[in-house]
Amino acid sequence: MGWESSHALVTGYETQLDDLRRRLVAAESIDTSQPQGRVQAAVMVPLVVVAGALEMLFIRRSELLSSHRGQVAFPGGRVEPSDKNLLATALREAQEEVALSPGAVTVLGRLSTVRTNTTGFLVTPFVGLIESAAQLRADEREVAEIFTVPLSSLADPTLRGEHHWDSQGARRVFPAIFYQGKVIWGLTLRITEELLGLL
To answer: Under a CB-based contact definition with an 8 Å cutoff, are residues 136 and 100 in contact?
Structure first.
């Protein structure tokens, strides 16, 4: 690869990050548009540069969990009394689930708060840039796998399809991204699509 091509790759992802910073909501701001009284939760949406391009980091939840077992998600969970704010929740959960040190995250901002369809939780996603995913380790009680997907693949229409989910005797169909055997759907897909839309 010549210098011009390498320089274009670097400039490309740096431009994406600059655009994203401008379009994300400030991490410290509070979303007052959501109804109060619901369980609050937060997730971290980590971005990492791989071979000059941005990739998004996901987890696959453990099959041992009582809910959403085996599903693709972002590191995160519900607010604990000791958390200073929702960002602290996202950073704490990411450290607990994948050993991502809060000091290793450059927080870029937050996305819209979304409500889960099954539990009614209010989930606030925060976007952060990390240097590498190589040092991460899954907490086996909660996380079966850590993996990254290039943003270009997430935006690829040929990887889109329908996910069929059986619940309480009824089959429902959801839009999904299919990537190397992984199915990204539901709340995780909604968060992913909002971020892609900002880019």
So the answer is: yes
